[in-house]
Amino acid sequence: MTNHWSDMVHADVIMIMGSNAAENHPIATKWITRAKEKGAIVVSADPRYTRTSSFADVYCKFRSGTDIAFVGGMINYALQNDFVQKDYVLNYTNASFIISEKYGFDDGLFTGYNPASRSYDKSHWAYELDGKGMPVRDMTLQHPRCAFQLLKKHFQRYDVDTVCNITGAPRDVYLQVCRHYTSTWAPDRVGTWLYAMGATQHTHGTQNIRTYAILQLLLGNVGLAGGGVNALRGESNVQGSTDMALLFHILPGYLASPTAADQSLAAYLASNTPRTNDPKSANWWGNYPKYIVSLLKAWYGGHAARENDFAFSYIPKRSGDYSWISLFEAMYAGQIKGLMLFGQNPAVGGPNTNKEIKALEKLDWMVAVDLWETETASIWKRPGVKPADIKTEIFLLPSASSVEKEGSITNSARWAQWRYAAVHPVGNSRSDLWILDALCKAVKKEYAAGGVFPEPITRLAWDYGTGEEVDVRKEPDVHRVAKEINGYFTQEKTVGGRQYKKGEQVPGFALLQDDGSTCSGNWLYCNSYAGPEKKDNKMARRSKRDAMNGIGLYPDWAWCWPVNRRILYNRASVDPTGKPWNPKRWVIRWNAGKKQWEGDVPDGPWPPGEKHPFIMKPDGHAWLFAGNLNDGPLPEHYEPLESPLPNMMSRQQVNPAIKLWHKDAPEMNAVGTADRFPIVGTTYRVSEHWQAGAMTRNLPWLAELVPDVFVEMGVDLARQKGVQNGDRVTLETARGKMSGYALVTRRFEPFRHNGKIVHEVGVIWHFGYQGIVKGDSANVLTPHVGDANTMIPEYKAFLCNVYKAKGGAS
Amino acid sequence: MKAKSLNLLSGQSVIWFLAVLGLVLIVYRFVMGLGAVTNLSDGYPWGIWIGLDILAGIALAAGGFVMAGTVYLLGGQRFHVMARTAVLTAFLGYLLFIFGLIVDLGRPWNIWKPVFNWQHESPMFEVSWCVMLYTFVLFLEMLPSVFERYRLEKLHSLWRMMVPWLIVFILGLFTLAMTHSPQWALAMVAVLLVWEGLIRLRIMPRHAEVSILLIAAGVILSTLHQSSLGSLFLIVPHKLHALWHTPILPLLFFFSAVMVAPAMVIFESLVTERTLGYKAHLDLLHAAARVMPYLLGVYLFLKLADLVGRGAVPHALALTPQAVSWWMEMGIGAVIPLVLFMTPELIRNRAGLFGTSVLVIAGVVWNRLNVAVVGVIVRPWETYYPYWAEVFITVGIISVGLLAFRWAMRNLPIHVEGESPHPA
Amino acid sequence: MKALLIDVTRCVGCRGCQVACKEWNELPAEKTRFFASPKGYQNPRDLSSKTWRVVTYNEAQTNGRFEWVFGHLQCFHCIEPSCATACPVSALQKTKEGPVVYDPDRCLGCRYCQLACPFLVPRFEWDKAIPKITKCTMCADRVAAGEEPACAKVCPTDAIVFGEREDLIAEAENRIHRNPRGYVHHIYGKDEVGGTCVLHLSNVPFEVLGYRTDLPKISLREYTKTAMQVVPHVKIGLAVALGAVSWVIQRRIRNGRDEKNGSSSGGES
Amino acid sequence: MKISRRTFLGATGGSALGTAVSLFGPQKGRAHAAQTPPMKTVRTKQSTTICPYCGVGCGLIVSARDGKVVSIEGDPDHPINEGSLCSKGMALYQVAVNERRLRSVLYRAPGGSRWEEKTWEWAVPEIAKRIKRTRDATFRREEGGRTVNRTEGIACLGGAALDNEECYLYSKLARALGVAYLEHQARI
After folding, report:
1. Confidence check: pLDDT of A196 > 80
2. Residue B119 to residue D25, Cβ atoms within 8 A
3. DSSP string over A396-464
């Protein structure tokens, strides 16, 4: 989220698309309904009328997977009607930047496409540079190759009729949505955009979000209170776990994980540190060397020195893609022998679970750390298999729950909040911290006697106060870990005229050094634990004092990255002179007398006009035109991998830059066609269950509320299929089938596309074969195919068929 | 004769079996909870146990107070010969209701709580006091038979001495409980004391066998609770079907209880004659039968006038299960017996008399079931049918009652054959 | 008197309240199955001894608009509760603070309260050897301690708010006044059965939510009041009348007999 | 930071004073909520926590007595949820108090048909041995002449439910082992 939860109260229009906040982030509704009380318009765009739609002023349906067409039409509506905040767009976005002559777009393909590798040469989409290496701009926005004109031309094709034909949205309702939302172009009006996995879990998920960002930038809604592009994250610490880089492609703090090309630290920095020739660009990522060196110092301490490239060679170098789907394909292929799982349950939650479970069976060993006996840990017990046939050795380690241990988690709004141990862990369970500490010490012990390339392990800086031996009674000192994440001076150092002693906590990431004098496990968290005492743990703060702008930032409540900035890109909330676009709910403002910013922590301390506001971009501007994405600089509508309709925008049926697993690894990766599977299927969650269900299907109170898998389907489809409310139905795709109870409802309506009727059904995916309440996992239906940029699986749109199961009614 | 006693024997063993089965089920009910033996639910918290055992049962036991009142207060001395049987039936009946109630109550160990917790706005409170006190009154009425049987002269004299004062005390206390007003209680006490005084002064009539105050207390208490059983349903205008929910429901309950008394007397006499061999006093039964058309007529008039007055006639004409049940109740229990009782040829023979009485009884039972079960509409999807165990517990309790009745008839000087119809 | 105002237009159906009720009152879960018709998401199907609060899911087409509205089943805490009127031993009582509370030590288990309640609220523990009547207590223990009931506290959207009844009625009227097209112009519970301490606002007719709209505006206690008030009159009146009648009859019999026999016998000894 | 919440602890007072119930006589109009027993959260140790379910980050207060969780409720001081919670957050008590929670290390041998209970002292070194064995067998120092120092034989998953400090150590350990396949919920 660029903004935060309670900030939604400031919005004039709240667009909820690709999110079902009422189900999956119920407390968001506190702030949405409060905004509504104050007169805000709430719009819910969703294939299905949800609990979120129930309190929306406008509900607009659209077929799963047509988000780009939907929002592309809104962008076109804004551009055609000139509902654009011009000063904002001109000054803060790359609208005026001239794009290379090599750029072009035809029939669904951008220039630079290589069909063999299914990838683009992105140099075709670069900025045109002047002699000094500065991007050429046209401040009149009239140049035919300026980003604004290219954008306008691109989205002109998304007129209302085309959009409604593709999406199946009713024309009048769609126009209402356009009218309401684009009304926020006015500087004193602001709209917020809430999305979640409904938007991302597509083969064009990243571009879905790009459409939101483009629209928000055109309307001048980013950086303002009540605005922003807000991803509602679905797990309590998925923000923190991402910040800490439990992903193949990054290191903590969103530093790129090195590739085989990065043979030295210098090579790594050369390919990752962005450069600019624009003196007004803050180019924050220019600090890359400080952050990576501080990280390496945190990991290898004294063993990381300039002489050995700060132990850079100890870090694994990737060659290619190791993302989720690739991981399970590799496991299925027998490449992966051992698996460690901390609180994750792929046997329910992974896409194409039939295949992923088969892959799990091929492991030599599995270590599952969990509170519960999950489906994944008990694949050998699942219905229809003989335990003897499954040779995987499984360790199931009991871990402590969140109220039995101490530490911080980072919410969707980037607030790191501290939790305490209220009681001891139940039975012999231990905190994950203890388990990780114990495992690391045991592995170190193994490698003390030698092994393949033992140095990265034996030299790993690892001392959290539990001694050398594994001891079940000694809990690691979580504060020591938190302080390492924040970072401290590894030697005496003078920065900015102040002398810091060895071991002193680094007060903020601006003070991190690239010479090895500081360490920081995650530069983004530098400032979170800025002193030696527990009272210096800012994540544990509980003051309700508000900032002087009175918009509920609560700067002394917990701590927020970066450097406690509550609203990202807040320099865009003021005009180039430092005056807020909307003085009634200002985020920051320049106090000319005191020569300082007031309100939120600004995106950099410079006076207004001195630096461009989007400091994380090398050009300092927000990107309407984004030349760095794998599947094109502008969003373009493609159909999902499985779709009942041809793409009405071009002959490119699916995103041309996605990896087609059904071609590369056809085994158990079948793709269905509309003749056998004419119905669009989607998966989702309910308020009462959570993710793969171990944390809710094991709780009697929640099991009671939603005891069974159900399949929601419209009245017309049910009539066609002879299905009554409450019947058992089977859903089938090319990959698998599962059963559930039919919930026949008027909340699911058929879509009309060029006169053709398309039905859609939806099913909750929380269920599995363990827990108090059991049921089929809906992920047996979903395909192994991912987004072109993120590789997130396309859970949200597939082709299926539905029929009444044998055995009949409930 | 031999065949008959054999019949009786086998009939008796069936009754014994049913009684034991009922008792076993009752034990099971106390271990497993009410849900295990009934189809009762939160929507239908009252089922056949309340409808049959309590509402219908108490109505049918009205014979006790009606006969006692008729004989001792209204000068119907010629019915005296039947009074003791009626009182015995009533006493056994009430003991069974209390037993049935203990089975039905969720927390029967608290059954005594109304004695101390006075919530006089509750018809249930009123009913519980009345039933408790009336059972005590019946017990007192029964005692002379026991004293006679076992020749306990001294106790008998003690009884004679104590009974009026006991009555004054319990009715006074009851009035206090129902009003929370000492004035009302004193007024009640005063009226009773004056009455007793006048009896002792031989101004008011007295009786050798019984205490007039005791009989009067029985009549008062019965009148109250027979009607209060109807009052129980006044609070559910939203649940009880309009065919039955009426402000005069207490009056209808009372009147139908009085109405069923002669029918019960006829029925009991004929059944006792057949099973135990005691000769029925046909002349008396005919006398009772002659009252019936009047009672039935008035009852029918009350029911119909009430229905018309409340504008509820359309409900009777609608095609609903309730309407059908209402017509059955009215037809079987009132209209047909009215016609039959007015047909002299029919009621002159035993079978006709018996059958017609059974119809009246069935009508009242039907009425009580209608009010307690059929007429209660909670939600469209909820229905109630008794569970088999529920039925067998009811049957078991009735069987216990029959066995007890048989024992009492055999062992207590209740029925003296050939006894003169004149009071001793 | 304290009360709850439930504004279903604000409810998003998350059921935090349903779980909060179980958490605070330590109620066990029920074994449930998918509840097909007509409620879909709803579970359990009904209130029970283990479930004192249920959110219902209702699809409706009103004023040309499709609505999915969430109703709330729980004790209404009537101002003059028919359950308390019905209870022979005051095991159920209305407290001055507002909650209708239950004392198992007195309860006979007669279940007359269940019959009497127009909202079908009191529930009986059918599966227990030592059963109790159970129902929402408006968290009387919390209310006594100055806290709000668990359901009101947990509600994210203030669809359930707790306060003084008069204030809540004023607030409800204010909401209708401010947004006349957004509400049915009726505060359910303001007058129903003489007024309740749980008030409801809705944007769809209350029947759609499954609430009874045929209930009288007077307390159900009024229906038994007369019958109960005449009891002492009947009692004394009957005593006097019986005495008088028996005196008259006996006198007539004696007179008749005297005329016939010239002597007295029979009736007395 | 342990907190003592006035709103929570205010309950200690009058509610403990039960009114003597007289045995005999009219009972109506006597009831007070004050007669009800005190709140179950009185005399408990209270600490704050953050909800482990979705990403909103609601605050909760855990009340514990004698090392047992008594109740978990929304934290009224928390600026996001202000005491409110959804069904999941409200059910957190049943995460803390739940018979289905794993209580000891379980081990299932290859092809085995049951869990065996084990000790940490046994399991931790055994796992370390498996890690070493697989890492040593699959570790690649070079690829096409370039140093890569990674293993593709071990995969690490999970972490979105872990604390930051745990995620950090997991991330650190996985990199030290040279794990290439490191993924978790954020991807899916």
Report:
1. yes
2. no
3. EEEB--GGGS-EEEE-TT-EEEEE---SPPSTT-B-HHHHHHHHHHHHHHHHHT--SS-HHHHT----S
> How many C-alpha atoms does B31 have within 13 Å on its Cβ side?
6
Q: What is the ipTM of this complex?
A: 0.92
CB distance D27–B180 less than 8 Å? no
Q: Which of A351, A391, A405 sits opposite D111 (nearest CB)?
A: A391
Contact between residue A108 and residue A649 where contact means Cβ atoms under 8 Å apart: yes
Average pLDDT, chain A: 96
pLDDT digits (tens, 9 = 90+) for B185-235: 999 999 999 988 888 888 877 777 778 889 999 999 999 999 999 999 999
pLDDT of residue C40: 81
Alpha helices in A107-219 (DSSP H): 147-156, 160-167, 171-182, 197-200, 205-218
- CA atoms within a 13 Å half-sphere pointing along the CA-CB vector of B225: 28
Residues 6+ apart with CB under 8 A from C37: A725, A726
pLDDT tens digits along A278-322: 999 999 999 999 999 999 999 999 999 999 999 999 999 999 999
Rounded mean pLDDT, B75-98: 84
Which of chain C's residues have a Cβ under 8 Å away from the Cβ of D32?
95-97, 144
pLDDT mean across residues, chain B: 87
**Minimal CA–CA distance to B180: which of D28, C84, C87, D26?**
D26
Closest alpha carbon to A475 in C233, D166, B261: D166
**Which pLDDT belongs to residue B153?**
87
Q: What is the pLDDT at residue B10?
A: 63
Sequence-distant (6+) residues with CB within 8 A of A782 are A351, A352, A353, A683, A733, A735, A793, A794, A795, A798
Lookup: tokens for A55: 């309190």
pLDDT of residue C59: 92
Contact D85 C20 (CB under 8 A): yes
Distances from the Cα of A572 to the Cα of A220, A221, A372, A613, angstroms: 8, 9, 46, 6
Gap between the Cα atoms of A323 and A786, Å rounded: 10
Distances A712 to A49, A677, A745, C36 between C-alpha atoms, Å: 11, 17, 7, 11
The Cβ of residue C26 has, within 10 Å, a number of other Cβ atoms equal to 10
Q: Give the torsion sign (CA, B169, B175, B181, B186).
A: negative
Q: What is the Cβ-side half-sphere exposure of residue A682, based on CA atoms within 13 angstroms?
A: 27
Q: CB–CB of C267 and B423 under 8 A?
A: yes
Among D60, D90, D95, D99, pick the best mutation site for testing chain C contact (most C Cβ within 10 A): D90
Q: Flag whether residue A686 sits within 8 Å of chain C, measured between CB atoms.
A: yes
CB distance A399 to A427 below 8 Å: no
Cα angle A800, A805, A807; round to 5: 170
Report pTM.
0.92
Contacts of A498 (CB under 8 A, 6+ apart): none
In CATH, the architecture of D45-96 is: 2-Layer Sandwich (3.30)
Burial of A138 (0-12, 13-18, 19+ CB in 10 A): middle
How is chain D split into domains, by residue range?
Answer: 45-96, 121-187
- Kindly report the CA angle at A708 between A355 and C75, in degrees rounded to 5? 155
pLDDT band (50, 70, 90) for residue B378: confident
Per-residue model confidence as pLDDT tens digits over A381-392: 999 999 999 999
CA D43 – CA D64 distance, rounded (Å): 9
Any bridge partners for residue A409, and if so which? Answer: A417
Is the CB of A422 less than 8 angstroms away from the CB of D95? no
Render pLDDT for D61-76 as a digit per residue (tens, 0 to 9). 999 999 999 999 999 9
The distance from CA A759 to its chain's CA centroid, rounded to whole angstroms, is 29
